[in-house]
Amino acid sequence: MKNDIYTMLNEVNINIDDYERKDFNDIEKKKIKSNLKKSILKKKPRKRGMIAAVAIAILTIGVFGSNIQAATLLSIKEDMTSFLGIERNLDEYKTVVNKAITYNGITVQLNEVILDGNEMTVSYNISSDKRLEEYESYDADNDIYINGKKLSTGASGSAGNIDDYTTQSVLTYTLKDKDLSGDLNIKISCSGIMLNDKFTKGKWNFEFKTNGDQLKVDTKKILLNNKFTLENGQEYTLEKYTDNSLGQKIYASISNFQTKSAYDISLKGTDDLGNKVKFSLRHQEKEYGLFKIENIHGNLNENAKILKLTPYAAKYPENSGKMNNKYKKVGEEFIIDLSKLK
To answer: What residue stretches are annotated with the DUF4179 domain (predicted)?
Structure first.
């Protein structure tokens, strides 16, 4: 059972705009983001050889950039599928951009992009001639534009150093109100790279065309109607279960949203084959929540026909430190009949 606040924060993307303080300026947001990332990096040991699978919570921060300069492409240590621990072949769904831009001595290379409903998963590398110290890694502040419109985004994902000079990141941006289907003109704009407390300004812009229809067509779903309530009165209604090559998700609506307390929430149980199954809350806003299966524990067995899940929650401490609160059952067990996927 997880008992550390930094481990908890690794698993959920929280939109800073949902909480009480509204007067964060860009500098304050960058400091919050940097301090959160440094804390997580110090807590997480290196895994999988040179890849430190460090999950990071990305705050919603707006930055801009323009103009580009070509650069030599970097090698990709792992493709997006391997990095995410997904066993299915995603080649037919990927848009391979493979474009690098160098500005102010830092190279950003956009590798691959996958569109999944209202989510966009992006793989990119960041490097320079500065040797990275242990637990150091680069972080980019990105804006997403679709068909010329800047979107409000939150993101979560993984980052790890693939050599002494390069960080590889795979981030999933949740675009709640945008359905990523049809032909799309996408721009990913970055005007700053963070390393520790140092913020380097620059102009790294990537523009490309893609289409989100194929994975959407191949996504199956089951409608749900299961509710549970936290101790603070915040209520979750599980509305939809989806399955595609990127994995399984459960979508929830939220009522009576509370800003004075936050919880780590999981849907835990087993399939009909006896395998343990866990969905963790990975994105949350005032009226919306998204649970994703934990790939680190293995993908859902393709032969499973039934899921039995129970909601559990533990309250985050108000101050940083150990997660002393134990997980408590916050709702009744419910069943998802996977034979009804369509």
So the answer is: 43-128
